[in-house]
Amino acid sequence: MPDVITASELPPEIVSEIRRLLIQGVAVERIVAYLRAMSGATTLAEADLPSRSALGRYALRSKSLRDKLTTCRALAVATAEGIGIQSSSAQMSILTELLQSHIFDFMMPEDGPAPDLTPKSIGELAKSLKDITTALRGNIEFMRAAEQLAADRATKLAAEKLERGLATAEGEAAASLAPQTPAQIIARIRSLYAGEG
């Protein structure tokens, strides 16, 4: 008896097409018929196609994973709003933590038997965790660069204000040291007593 083919063992372009059809809500029976019709146009033999039950299991797992991801996103946004986080960076961190916990929940459920951890599934878990870590690291590097840019701009703005302030102070000092007529001195004294200067 030949080995049972699962949907995830198919070529990537066919798996992508299956996912697209599942997301659109196409019934498993119609996807099976579509794959059989497509097998004539590709190098894939009909015997190499997954069974209806294997495709059904794949569809259920995919839907479950999509639902968990949607829940995870909603939880991240709700948590971020609940604790007052408005930055997308903080939301990204929370989303990453939630996604990581969902991956572990998916791979190692508390109730029922643990899924068979094949080298392929362990590799996929490792790749998922690596991708999450890479995304988080990229987010942290982006935030550091943004903070550095803001600090550089603030320093430059402060230096410009200081230069303008010094120039204004020098101008006022030069004006106060210039010889004044008695009428200018009296006008200045009156303005000081009147509270204008």
From the structure above, extract its key features.
197 residues, mainly alpha, 6 helices
Task: Write a brief caption for the model.
This protein is an all-alpha fold and 197 residues long. 74% of the residues lie in helices and 0% in strands.
Question: Could you give the topology of this structure?
Answer:
Elements: H1 12-23, H2 28-39, H3 52-82, H4 88-107, H5 119-177, H6 182-193
Helix pairs in contact: 3-4, 4-5
Write structural notes for this entry.
- The protein has 197 residues and is mostly helical.
- It has a domain at 138-197.
- It is 74% helix and 0% strand.
- It is built from 6 helices and no strands.
- The chain has helices at 12-23, 28-39, 52-82, 88-107, 119-177, 182-193.
- Helix 3 (52-82) packs antiparallel against helix 4 (88-107) and helix 4 (88-107) packs antiparallel against helix 5.
- The longest helix is centred in the last third of the chain and has 59 residues, at 119-177.
- The chain is rod-shaped and about 110 Å long.
Q: H/E order of the elements?
A: HHHHHH
* Proportion of helical residues: over 70%
Largest pleated sheet: none
Instruction: From the alpha carbons, calculate the radius of gyration and give it in angstroms.
Output: 34 Å
Low-confidence stretches: none
Number of helices: 6
Distance, first to last CA: 102 Å
Provide the residue-averaged pLDDT: 74
Q: What fraction of residues sit in β-strands? A: under 5%
